[in-house]
Structure formats: structure tokens, C-alpha cells
Amino acid sequence: MAFISSGYNPAKPMEGRITDIGPRHFTDFLPPVLAKNKGAWDYHEILEPGVLLHVGLSGDKVYTVRCGGARLMSVTHIREICDIADKYCGGHLRFTTRNNIEFMVGTVEDAKALKADLNARKFAGGSYKFPVGGTGAGVTNIVHTQGWVHCHTPATDASGTVKATMDVVFEEFQNMRLPAPVRISMACCLNMCGAVHCSDIAILGIHRKPPIIDHESVDNICEVPLAVAACPTGAIRPTKIEFQGKQVNTVAVKNERCMFCGNCYTMCPAMPLADKTGDGIAIMVGGKISNRITTPKFSKVVVPFIPNEPPRWPKMTKVIKKILDTYAGDARKYERLGDWANRIGWERFFEKCDLEFSAHLIDDFRDPAYYTWRQTTQFKF
Amino acid sequence: MAIVEFKSNKFEVDEDGFLLKFEDWNPEWVEYVKESEGIAVISESHQKVIDFLQDYYKKNGIAPMVRILSKVTGYKLKEIYELFPSGPGKGACKMAGLPKPTGCV
After folding, report:
1. Complete edge-to-edge strand list for the sheet that includes strand A300-307
2. Which one of B7, B46, B80, B84 has the lowest number of neighbouring Cβ atoms within 10 Å?
3. What is the mean pLDDT of chain A?
4. Taking Cα atoms as reference points, which of B23, B44, B15, B104 lies closest to residue A193?
5. Active site residue B104
6. Which parts of chain A register pLDDT below 50?
7. What kind and span of H or E run contains B39?
């Protein structure tokens, strides 16, 4: 398309410039019933999977219908969401912190009709556009990252792995039959954008090979001290080498000290490390952020490596399904996955989930690693 | 990578318009960049910031932290933005010929 100016004048970039106005205030978008009862809610119920009822002290009722979203969406899709909101909700809607979509209506009949409408909408390929669910003790949406769609440091894909996983656990999205909610999260490298470090089940992209150093450009496009300081294990040092007859400043990596975190590539574009066969996925479990009964917990690595198998990642989804099913069958009511594993002991967790325990899972990072070892005779054979 | 020509100079740049080699920098680079960075005239203040960035980079191999830039030049962050509308990273470092800022920017 030919260029169409928005009115911005590149010759006078600061003229008429509006800045620091922040986001719109959320009250601009509240449905009337929420605005009226704000701060005066009495109680709530989950009527059925995906449908919530909140009752205000005034007696006002609001029914919320929650449906899944792919997070990565086109404007066409957002327009369809708006059309639904126009039809049922007076043009109001919201997105949740796990990127589900919520429509609020005034009566239970409207909520039922809306749920039926949402569940009937499908893409040409057959996928549900707006599957209703994600409430209570089930599996809700997967918090995930950019992957191969947009980022330059990923070790795996985000949207692809998430679609493959949600397809496998889809029934749990539409039901509430687990002992407690299970949060699955995904990050495509160990920057861990999002929630993988504190989720019941976490999918994490990892590398297994050290960076390749582009000696020709290190000194030109990198600030070498930053690359050195980026390394958590001190594997990188500055050095001078002879390159194509010239003395160049560059870096050297002690491969036996490198654990392939990729931090140096984040700081220095001349140290790429992505690798088709080397890269893959680690599975972590047992994290949570709520304070309910037990304190928040970090998730722990239980599967050190699963290869990347686009487009459906069958080995990965099989492991996740196995962990989820074992937890669902074995844990007590209200027990989060981490609470369950801690109660039965991690040796039992590995046994029940049929996971292999390898040396990769034993913490060896600095002094705190010691506290993760077992300093007691209490264990089960 | 692209090569830009300006007043008999050839500069090798990346897609964001940063110099690929610090050694390629010369005062005409500043003249070339200023327009795309929304700067009409290079004042003494601009020059002071550019000179300091270059000295610091030559000496330490990194760009200074914003607080160091402010403290040494005496310009508050607000004033640096008035000089370089794109900010110290995209604006001043690019004009000074320093490598492109990296990390989660």
C-alpha cells in the first residue's frame, strides 16, 4: 500500500507530540453492573465449567462466561470478540491474567445462550474459536512467550508447543475434576518470561551446545565486558586472537564451564547458540504463587530434556499428560501438584509418574545447591 | 548489511542504522544521523555527550550506565532526552558510533 500519513510530520518530530498519558483508566470500560457494584460484592459461585456468578450486596447478579484464547490473535479475531460482546454484553468484555476472554451478562439464560454460541464457533480447520472453560479445579490457559514467532533467543516454539499441549489436556479445560487448579506455563528460553518458574507444570526451552563465536564481529557489535559479565558460571573471558591475519579482540568460552544459558547471546549478537538438534525442552513441576495452605513455591526440573518435535511435540505432550493424570488420580482434594509431590516425596513422584531420574536433575549451582540434597535418613525405597 | 553514502563517506550500518564498526566513525556520521534522530543542529551540549560516550567506550569497552552519563556530563535524563529525543541509547550512542544496545530492550 502506498504511504498514508497519520498527520505526523517527520520534519518536526516533536511538534504536536503527546506523551506520558499512560493507559486509559479501567473505569472507562466497566460494564454498568460492575461499575455500580464495585467494591461491594457479596459472594460468588462457579455454576458450571466456564460460567461464574457474582452476587453484589445490593442483590445485583453478574454472570461471567470465560473462554479460551490463543493469545496470539489477528484483528479479525478481536473484531469477532467485539461482535459477540456487542450482541450479548452491551459492548463490554475483558481479558484475564492468563489471556482467557471473559464476557459478562446479566441473566443465567443469557449466560447459557452465550456459552452455546461460543462453543459453536469454529475455525475452518475445526478448532474451537472460543471454547468455554478455564474455571475452578481444571487446567486453564497456558501462559506462554514468543518463540519462533518473534524472539531471537528461543530454544523452542511457544505457540506450537502450547497448541499441542492444550489439545492433549483440552478436556481438563472444559471440566473441573482435578484435585486443585493446574497451571501450565511455557517459556521458550530460560529468561523465563512469564510464569514457568512458579507453575504446576512448566515447559521450558533449553540449549545443549555452547555458543558459536563470530570472532570477526565480536569487538564491533558487542560490548565485550557485558558479555563476560553476562555469564553465570564465569565461562567467558576476553581474549585476543589472530583472525584472517589480523589481531582482533574477542572472547573465549570454556566449553566445560558453559551450561548453555544463552545470556551471552542476549548481550552479544556475535555469540549465537541456537541449534536444531541440540535445542529442546525441559519439564518443571510443582510451583505455585498462591499462599493457600502452603507458601508459594518454585517449580523443579523433573525432565531434563525432550527433543523439539515440531509441529506437535508428541514426546513432550505425552510426559505432560502422564504427570497430569498421575496427579489427578493420586492427589488429595485442594492439593496442588507441588503439595502432592512434597507429601508423597519426590522419589515417589518419579516412581508414580514413571519419569527417569538422572544426574541432570541434581542441583549443582553454587552454594544453595547443597540445600537441595537430602540431609536426612528419611526416604522411601 | 547496508552501506550508506554521505559526503564522500561510506558507512556500513545495520538495519537499525547503527554503525557496524566504531573505527568507521567520523564527525560526518553525526551530520548524517542527526536528521533521522530528530536533531536540527548539533550543539555544544550534543557534542559533549557524544565525546563523553566515545571516551568512555574507548576506555572501558562498554557504553556508560545512564546514571554515569548524567553524573559526568551534568545533564539530567530529562535534558538528555531534550538533546536526543530517541534517548541516550538509540539517539546518543548511535550518533557516537557505539555498538547497538543489547539485552531485553
Report:
1. A184-187, A201-206, A280-285, A300-307
2. B7
3. 97
4. B104
5. yes
6. none
7. none
Please tell me the distance from the alpha carbon of residue A308 to that of residue A157, in angstroms, as a whole number. Answer: 9
Contacts of A316 (CB under 8 A, 6+ apart): A161, A164, A165, A203, A281, A283, A306, A309
Q: Which residues of B touch A226 (CB under 8 A)?
A: 62, 102-103
Extended strands (E) in chain A = 41-48, 51-56, 61-67, 94-95, 101-105, 184-187, 201-206, 236-243, 246-253, 280-285, 300-307
Any A CB within 8 A of B105 CB: no
Tell me the CA distances in angstroms from A166 to A30, A142, B4, one per residue in order: 30, 8, 48
Kindly report the nearest CA distance between residue A259 and chain B, in angstroms: 19
Q: Which of B1, B3, B40, B104 is catalytic?
A: B104
Mutate to test the interface with A, among B102, B104, B105 (most CBs of A within 10 A): B102
Chain B residues within an 8 Å CB radius of A14: 38, 85
Rounded Cα distance, B39 and B91, in Å: 9
The model's pLDDT over A120-171, given as tens digits with 9 standing for 90+, comes to 999 999 999 999 999 999 999 999 999 999 999 999 999 999 999 999 999 9
Crossing angle for the helix pair A108-120 and A75-88, to the nearest 10 degrees: 150
Q: Is A59 left (phi over 0), alpha (psi -120 to 50) or beta?
A: left
Distance from the A172 Cα atom to the nearest Cα atom in chain B, whole angstroms: 35
Contacts of B95 (CB under 8 A, 6+ apart): B29, B30, B33, B34, B37, B46, B50, B84
Cα torsion through A40, A42, A46, A47, rounded to 10: -100
- pLDDT at residue B35 in the model: 87
pLDDT value, residue A88: 96
Closest CA to A286 of A326, A315, A232, A318: A326
User: Cβ of B20 and A222 within 8 Å?
Assistant: no
Q: What is the pTM of this model?
A: 0.94
Model confidence at B105, pLDDT cuts 50, 70, 90, reads confident
